[in-house]
Design goal:
single chain, about 400 residues, Aspartate Aminotransferase, domain 1, 2 domains, 12 strands, about 40% helix, globular
Length: about 400
């Protein structure tokens, strides 16, 4: 792979390992183990495996390695470890580096499962967690301590689409020696500048834009080679959350088209936001890439684009939101995002339903809020669909 390639070329060719048959499409090495010519070869590989030597699929696999190398090249990271799901990646990034007595500071506006890890799982094992308003730098500064081991946040929060100032938060975290871990799903690998802006570790749910077609679960942790191979890999080897070779092949195929897909989706999301701004049936429209977003200038500086997801707060609360959802003819009701199909979600009753009502209010997850992941359909058709659904509220 050439260091001189542009992004779209890397997404098609990066990390390719061809077998003796010189196949065009990446091969699926659907095997759980590998054979050694001699007992001495087996002993040597267990002491230290080379870059193209594998031991067991839970440790690594040629198809998985291709995906890891390609996504690392896209992100600008030294290395990556592919996981069975996005939440496996979040758990691996945090749990692999933490121990009893460590302190973590995290943004409070997080996906429900991320909050579960921070509020329920880590404290069971003696890790202290402090939650802050991620957009308030003063709260970050006040919460960080000399013993803070890690900082965790979504670069764009789910589902209210608040954007965190990566450079400012990482500068504060690094001043006390903390490792910065960012869940970067909403920014997408296409628009990401997280590592350039100071992030130490970047996490993706590959289930979202990387696959982008609703086929498979997957995740990935990206960072320095030392962190990935000395911290994450040993933890994942022994806890079993590795990505399957077949899923890795799907993710490789997804990477070939992710740049084209995400840019088209982001353009459609902006067009849809423009179309529904000020609609009489809506309390507000939230899209980071629109000038109406309170952090629009930060978005332009940090990613340049607003991503593929917008949120609509429908007047009339849950009943009105459900009428809107049920009237949609193109967008489907589901709880994924980043898909080729447009997907509408009611967070208060699905992805964030476990949160207490007062916490939902604090996070801006109102009864009328609908998260809308914009797909690859014709934008004019999407606009017409949303407009006719709003008319029935």
């Amino acid at each position: 792979m050439s260091d001189q390639w542009n992004k779209r070329t890397t997404l098609v060719h990066g990390g390719t390992r061809r077998s003796q048959y010189n196949e065009v499409s990446e091969a699926i090495f659907l095997t759980q183990g590998f054979v050694y010519d001699t007992a001495e070869d087996a002993e040597a590989r267990f002491i230290e495996a080379g870059p193209d030597e594998f031991i067991y699929a839970r440790y690594g696999n040629p198809t998985v390695a291709m995906f890891e190398e390609r996504i690392a090249a896209l992100e600008g990271a030294e290395d990556a470890f592919a996981t069975a799901s996005g939440m496996a990646a979040v758990n691996a990034a945090l749990t692999s580096m933490l121990k009893a007595g460590d302190h973590v500071v995290a943004a409070q506006a997080l996906f429900g499962s991320c909050l579960y890890i921070l509020e329920e799982i880590l404290p069971r094992f003696g890790v202290e967690v402090t939650l802050v308003d991620g957009t308030d730098l003063a709260q970050w500064k006040a919460a960080l301590r000399p013993d803070t081991k890690a900082v965790f946040f979504e670069s764009t929060s789910n589902p209210t689409l608040e954007v965190i100032d990566i450079k400012s938060v990482t500068d504060l975290a690094h001043a006390v020696g903390a490792t910065v871990i960012i869940d970067n799903v909403f920014a997408t690998p296409v628009f990401s500048r997280a590592i350039e802006l100071g992030a130490d570790v970047v996490v993706y749910s590959a289930t979202k834009h990387i696959d982008g077609q609703g086929r498979a679960l997957g995740g990935v942790v990206l960072g320095t080679r030392e962190f990935i191979r000395k911290t994450v890999e040993p933890y994942m080897k022994h806890t079993g959350g590795a990505m399957s070779p077949f899923s890795a092949w799907i993710m490789l195929k997804g990477l070939e088209t992710i740049d084209l897909r995400v840019r088209a989706q982001a353009a459609s999301a902006l067009a849809l936001t423009d179309a529904v701004q000020g609609h009489e049936k809506l309390e507000q429209v939230i899209f980071p890439g629109h000038s109406s977003h309170p952090q629009f200038d930060l978005v332009k500086a940090q990613t340049g684009k607003g991503g593929t997801v917008m949120s609509l707060d429908v007047k009339g609360g849950q009943e009105a939101a459900f009428r809107f959802l049920n009237a949609l003819q193109i967008a489907v009701i589901s709880n994924n995002l980043g898909d080729a199909k447009s997907i509408a979600t009611h967070p208060a009753t699905t992805t964030h339903q476990r949160l207490p009502d007062d916490q939902k209010v604090a996070l801006g997850i109102t009864p009328g809020l609908v998260r809308f992941s914009v797909g690859l359909e014709d934008p004019d058709d999407l606009i017409a669909d949303v407009m006719q659904a709003l008319a029935q509220v």
